# Entry
Amino acid sequence: MEAVVSVLSNPYYIQVVTMMGIFLIAALGLHLITGVTGQFSFGHAAFLSIGAYSSALMTIHLHTPFLLNMLAGGLMAALWGIILGFPSLRLTGDYLGITTLGFGEIVRVVFINMKITGGAGGLGGIPRETNILLVYVVVALTIWGLCRIQNSRFGRALAAIREDEIAAESMGINPLLYKIKGFALGTFFAGISGALFAHLMQYLNPADFGFAKSFEILNYVVLGGLGSIPGTILGTAVLSLAPEFLRFVKEYRMLIYGGLMVLMMIFRPYGLLGGVDFVQLYKKLKARRKARPT
Amino acid sequence: MFWQQLVNGVTLGSTYALIALGYTMVYGIIQLINFAHGEVYMIGAFAGLIMVTVYKVNFIIAILVAMLVCVPLAILIERIAYRPLRKSTRLAPLISALGVSIFLQTLVTLIKGGPNPLAFPQVIQDTVYVLGPVRFSTVQVIILVMASLLMVFLQFTVKYTKIGKAMRATSEDYEAASLMGINVNRVVSFTFAVGAALAGAGGVLVGMYFNSIHPFMGVSVGLKSFCAAVVGGIGSIPGAMLGGIFLGIAEVMGVAAGFDTYKEAIAFGLLIVVLLFKPTGLLGLPIQRKV
# Structure
């Protein structure tokens, strides 16, 4: 018992768990784009960085309250999501993925070249505003919101686009409009996550938001189970904690991590929990309880 | 000045083109973005370095050995990480490819003992030839000659040999090709092998050109070459050559024009612009929407 308490109160572990929550928010945003709407996005980290930098700059220069800055970071990311989405969401599949990848790299290079962001040296002196409680409140709100969205008319339209775009179009859904809305929402969550990240680390560097980070978040979504919120949560938990558990193998850590990615895909190509949905699980449970004679 | 930058751009671009060919051929046949291709190129460069420093061989032999090392590696990667996933979702082999790429980067870092770059020794007497306003170094001439030879050889293989015909048939229609008695698995392996051989040669040539290699060199060059393949029209072999040279010229000219801090973004910016106006690349065929 004492061991558990000492682990739980260890600031390092709290940091790890907080970070997991932060990336979970970003992963849930990508889940809406890739898992629900079926659109590839290989540049999710760029939206994180947009949210992180804009909220951090607001905190430093405007001294506005943190929650407002966090929201602004999310909105800024969503705005760029729309700006990128309008031309690029006409493209399909891999081409969209490549465009978002290119956008991600461009954003990184622009942040390196900008004066106000501190360039390649990074942006320091951000006050610490994020704590584990706030992060998990936002996580809960995100999950709640996504469950509501997925089971609404809007969410079903997004799923229809994923299943068959032409069929969805002939049912009166404007695919481009819905895709842009979905993309904007997904990038909004990325921006929020970035804002929380900035105010936890107190230091930002464009190198932290490269294409490797984008694919890391994509991994969370795909390995957990594409299209499933519990899957995304599980994937994020497993993959963001895996490097900590693999610490004992020291320098072989990334070797094993890479190998595990291949093995997981070969044995569970649809992810750990492919196609599992909270609301449907709950309904099933309820139906089973009703069916049982009392 | 302009002509000089053009020559530098074509030299850089032809190394991109060599790597882009591997991406485009694999994509043309199994619609897979082979993200581990950049690592094959990196391992080719290291194999070449070992040959010239430890065994002190001629650079041509180093290139041939690098190609011979990369071929079985790529076939192995395909067998282990992609073939079991050929029938699953589009994202599964992509993640698997990234896993392979992390694995190989770490493996080379561990064997080498650290991520810092290694110097690639000067393997040939570097003389400068002057031709009108342009100065060529020997390395540039070698790169241009080797790259064009390899591309002509590739074009010949794809156009006039039996396996080349099988490759074209498989990329046209995978199922129909297998029904016509083509061993598609062999074609896929062969495609990976050819792409890897070109990437291995590219790795050694780049090592000779920039005199420095490191375990993560495949990431940025791989991504840019992939951009080149897409700009040219992914799946199209002449497209990859054109796209590679186009991006090489653009990058060198961009740096010469004073955008050197934006060097890494030039390829991606061009990619987005090209895709917006020509959604399947310069030489790509339009996608047909079928119900």
